Amino acid sequence: MDISIIIPAFEESHKIRKDIETAWQFLQDHSLAGEIILVDDGSSDDTATVAEAVGKELAAPLRVIRYAPNRGKGHAVRTGILQSEGDYIMFADAGTCVPYDNALRGLDLIRSGQCDIANGSRRIDGCQIDSQQTAIRRFCSKSFRKVIRLFMGVPRELTDTQCGFKVYRGNVARQLYALSTIDGFTFDVEIILLARRKGYRIREFPVDWTCDCDSRISIHKTSIRVLKELLAIRRNVNRHKEAQSF
Question: Residue 24's domain spans which residues?
Answer without folding.
Answer: 3-244
